[in-house]
Amino acid sequence: AGLPEKTLKFLRNNQPQVMVMDCSHPPRADAPRNHCDLNTVLALNQVIRSPRVILTHISHQFDAWLMENALPSGFE
Question: What is the pTM of this model?
Answer without folding.
Answer: 0.90
